[in-house]
């Protein structure tokens, strides 16, 4: 009998792919390099449950409590709680612990799906801050301070704000100004820092939301630090948050059998962060700078890493190569896996787990691809739709309404019954309960033609869509 998942993973493991994607430990190599191999040798032997001596994540009093206190000191929070269901469960618990049913929350339109799902679970109404996009790269910019303030001013009854910082692409913005403004209006500020657990490792990186005074900060330790997938943390950073309420919601939505392998991996990541993090980050930032310098003279190559410098966006669009193509060439021909691609380029997530060899391989591959470039082709895609569709139903009401399947070309002006989530970046263009627009349908149809993947829709061929009839 075939072991489908295991066999595939072993096959991929043996390919020794060069990783510019998550998780941050880069196929476990960092554990081997730094001498943690013995701790992980027979890891199945420490897979346990709540027995004498192992404490309980949902009521931590012993070793888990001590470990969380260590994390809290390291990340400068008032309290830290480990999460084993990713930042997804941290975001949902944060929102539901501060926003009662029928209340309102403000968020950036390009928020992660977990924010809208929390609104469905908790019967909360989201109000959105419009997103802005860079037309040259198709990358969503961070939140505009003036737009955030405008949205706050027109939603003064909102209980809280949740913002993505940094974005998937490493964009940051004047978060502190928004935090201060939100606090002046008595709102709690939650930060989805899923992509920013590493920020305090260098002064060359933007400040973490914790240092800027956010009330609750959720980090995917597994994405940018060396923890196992799903291992995350939520940091409580102010008296405005009810810690016990947060714990109660976590008990509702997180596994009642939290994995000790994931908990141990959080501790390993912390140990590495504390003992080696700053040195490794300095080395990483140097490597990235060297790579950028190598391509500086070629004005047709775009290598962007302006804000969070560990996220590199590489575009060969002026050489006629789409991001989807570049992604495929890097993996197919050079064994290099990027995090994601859009029409114009690829995104690389670099962490303290990457070494010199990775960057040498990357540089060699990019130089080689450039040798075969065709500058004739001009690439243009339809702009990302940033207009916020009209809302007819809040997410929870829409979720429970009956749905009807119709042809997608007949859906414009109708109420959407499902999500439309182009990947990348995995952010919902439209949510259930909102009016479908011409620009949204045109964008996904054009995107799919060019290689974009769209999820959320029941019909993955994009022929039909579920709508809600009034
Ligand atoms: C911006 C953002 N927030 C939250 C999450 C969820 O994080 P996790 O995978 O740790 O559940 C993701 C996942 O990719 C994300 O991109």
Short description:
The chain is α/β, with parallel strands linked by helices. It contains 15 helices and 20 strands.
Secondary structure layout:
Layout (H helix, E strand, L loop, with lengths): L3 H12 L2 E3 L8 H5 L3 H4 L22 H13 L3 E5 L2 H13 L5 E5 L4 H10 L2 E5 L3 E2 L4 E2 L4 H9 L6 E5 L10 H10 L3 E5 L23 E4 L1 H4 L7 E5 L6 H11 L6 H35 L7 E3 L6 E5 L7 H12 L1 E3 L1 E2 L4 E4 L6 H16 L23 H6 L3 E4 L7 E2 L4 E3 L14 H13 L2 E3 L8 E5 L2
Parallel strand pairs: 1-13, 3-4, 3-7, 7-8, 8-9
Antiparallel strand pairs: 2-10, 5-6, 9-10, 11-12, 12-15, 14-15, 16-20, 17-20, 18-19
Helix pairs in contact: 4-11, 5-6, 5-10, 7-8
Bound molecules: pyridoxal-5'-phosphate.
The site of pyridoxal-5'-phosphate has 12 residues, from helix 5.
Explain what this protein looks like in three dimensions.
This protein is α/β, with parallel strands linked by helices. Among the domains are: 37-273, Type I PLP-dependent aspartate aminotransferase-like (Major domain) (Aspartate Aminotransferase, domain 2, 3-Layer(aba) Sandwich), CATH 3.40.640; 395-468, Molybdopterin biosynthesis moea protein, domain 2 (Alpha-Beta Complex), CATH 3.90.105. Helices cover 37% and strands 16% of the residues. It has 15 helices and 20 strands. A 7-stranded mixed beta sheet has the order 2-10-9-8-7-3-4, sandwiched between helices. A 4-stranded antiparallel beta sheet has the order 11-12-15-14. Helix 4 (63-75) packs parallel to helix 11. Pyridoxal-5'-phosphate is lined by residues 86-88, 112, 114, 164, 168, 192, 194-195, 220, 232.
């Amino acid at each position: 009998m075939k072991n489908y998942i295991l066999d595939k993973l072993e096959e991929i493991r043996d390919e020794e792919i060069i990783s510019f994607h998550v998780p941050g430990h880069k196929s476990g190599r960092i554990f081997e390099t730094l001498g943690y191999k013995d701790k992980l040798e027979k890891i199945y032997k420490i897979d346990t449950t709540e027995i004498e001596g192992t404490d309980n994540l949902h009521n931590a009093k012993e070793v888990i409590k001590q470990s969380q206190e260590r994390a809290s000191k390291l990340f400068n929070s008032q309290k830290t709680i480990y999460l084993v269901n990713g930042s997804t469960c941290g975001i949902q618990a944060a929102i539901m612990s501060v926003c009662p049913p029928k209340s309102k929350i403000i968020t950036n339109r390009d928020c992660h799906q977990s924010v809208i799902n929390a609104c469905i679970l908790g019967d909360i109404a989201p109000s959105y801050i419009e997103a802005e996009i860079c037309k040259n790269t198709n990358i969503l910019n961070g939140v505009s301070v003036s737009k955030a303030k405008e949205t706050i001013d027109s939603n003064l009854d909102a209980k809280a704000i949740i913002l993505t910082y940094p974005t998937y692409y490493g964009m940051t913005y004047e978060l502190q100004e928004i935090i201060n403004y939100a606090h002046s209006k008595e709102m709690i500020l939650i930060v989805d820092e899923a992509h920013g657990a590493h920020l305090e490792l260098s002064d060359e990186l933007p400040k973490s939301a914790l240092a800027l005074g956010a009330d609750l900060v959720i980090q995917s330790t597994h994405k940018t630090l060396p923890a196992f997938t799903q291992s995350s943390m939520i940091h409580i950073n102010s008296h405005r948050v009810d810690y016990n309420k947060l714990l109660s919601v976590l008990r509702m939505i997180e596994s009642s059998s939290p994995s000790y392998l994931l908990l141990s991996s959080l501790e390993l990541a912390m140990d590495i962060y504390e003992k080696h993090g700053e040195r490794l980050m300095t080395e990483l930032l140097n490597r990235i700078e060297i790579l950028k310098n190598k391509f500086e003279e070629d004005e047709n190559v775009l290598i962007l890493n302006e804000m969070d410098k560990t996220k590199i966006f590489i575009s060969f669009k002026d050489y006629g190569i789409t991001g989807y193509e570049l992604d495929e060439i890097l993996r197919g021909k050079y064994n290099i896996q990027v995090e994601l691609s859009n029409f114009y380029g690829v995104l690389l997530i670099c962490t303290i787990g990457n070494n010199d060899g990775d960057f040498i391989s990357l540089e060699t591959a990019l130089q080689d691809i450039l040798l075969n470039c065709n500058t004739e082709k001009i690439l243009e895609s339809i702009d990302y739709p940033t207009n916020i569709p009209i809302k007819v139903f809040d997410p929870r009401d829409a979720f429970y309404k009956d749905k009807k399947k119709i042809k997608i070309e007949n859906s414009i002006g109708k109420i959407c019954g499902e999500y439309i989530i182009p990947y990348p970046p995995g952010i919902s263009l439209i949510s259930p309960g909102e009016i479908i627009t011409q620009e949204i349908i045109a964008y996904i149809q054009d995107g799919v033609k060019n290689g974009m993947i769209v999820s959320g829709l029941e019909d993955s061929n994009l022929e039909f869509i579920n709508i809600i009839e009034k």
